[in-house]
Amino acid sequence: MHISLNIATGGHVPLSGGLILPWLASGPAVSGDGREGTTLAADTSDTWTYDGAQASVAQRQYRLMIDGLEIVPATDTASLDLPAGTAGGQFWMQLRVQVTAAPALWSPWQIIASGTVVGLPQLSGASAIPVGETGYSGTVSTDTGAGTLYWRVSTSAAPPTLSALKAANSQPISQIGAQSVSGASLIAATNYHLHFVQEDATGQDSAIVSSPMFTTNAPQAGEPAAFGPGDWSIINLATGGDARLSITALPDDGGDALKVIFYNIDGGAWVPLPSAATGSHDLMDLFTDGVPAAVRLRSENLFGPSPDSAPKSVTTTSPQPWQITDTGDGRFTLSSAPPPDAAPEITNNGDGTFAVQA
Fold first, then answer.
1. Low-confidence residues of the chain: pLDDT under 70
2. What domains, with CATH codes, occur in the chain?
3. Rounded to whole angstroms, how far apart are CA atoms 291 and 283?
4. Radius of gyration in angstroms for the set of CA atoms belonging to the chain, rounded to a whole number
5. CA 288 to CA 268: how far, in whole Å?
6. pTM above 0.70?
7. CA distances (Å), origin 185, targets 115, 133, 140, 307
8. H or E, element range at 164
9. Each residue's pLDDT tens digit, 118-154
10. Per-residue confidence (pLDDT) for residue 56, from 0 to 100
């Protein structure tokens, strides 16, 4: 924004009775960009004439007019604030002086700066949409094609503080109109708002504007994940061809509950377990004792089967016969592998031998 200086040079104003009023011959420099909420400031390097000669200034007064209304009355302060809310109005910064000559007359008000009050940057039309489960894109329009756009994504509809917003994300603004932003790292199926503010090239901030609420997408359902090594185990029961399969944790179900869990042995047919939950299952008479077997798991939901788990090996064995050992001191010991669930029945044959019935 450029301030146009309106400086009267030379001349003087005669009054009735022959009195001559001081008149501004050259004006002071005025700083300020004419934006509402900012300050117009004049220095005192002005030159006045009185009755054709250079006048010695005793007092200076300034005032601010906007659209013909006196916004700041006469004051000796050379810095005048352009109030917020006056964008589009025509302003005049005026100066008058009183010289030391007698009689001590005030000069007429002289315009030392004028122009149109420029508004703060204005943002409008904030909007946002989800991109997948964790991303977003948003737009907002600006009427000022310079400065910096800041934005922050939040679960709260209430705007953040200006400092928090400016500490989040930013990008330069190079043209008037729609500005596009995007980001990621959100949480699926969660409500969010985008909050925007613009700082223009002079350091003035717009009001904070916020988008309507948007909701990130929920995770899409699919096939289950594979069973991990820590999710299950298989052990030999030592009862002849039998093993116990134990499931201690279920894999990610892909967004749809598991319908069935399968196992296979050595790459054979997939066999469903009676339950799709955690628990133990005895696989009876399915193995050859002494021969390692590879067991795999997989699950299935409405969308299909999971990948196969890594195999686990099991080697089954048969129970060992009872062994009677003479300890040499008139006693005997009984042993079995694995240890029995209950003590065996021992029969004295009466001929120095014993029979053991498990």
1. 1-19, 102-103, 321-322, 330, 332, 334-346, 352-358
2. 13-116 (2.60.40), 123-215 (2.60.40.4070), 229-314 (2.60.40.10), 323-357 (no CATH)
3. 15
4. 46
5. 14
6. no
7. 47, 9, 21, 28
8. helix 162-166
9. 888 989 999 999 999 999 999 999 988 899 999 999 9
10. 87
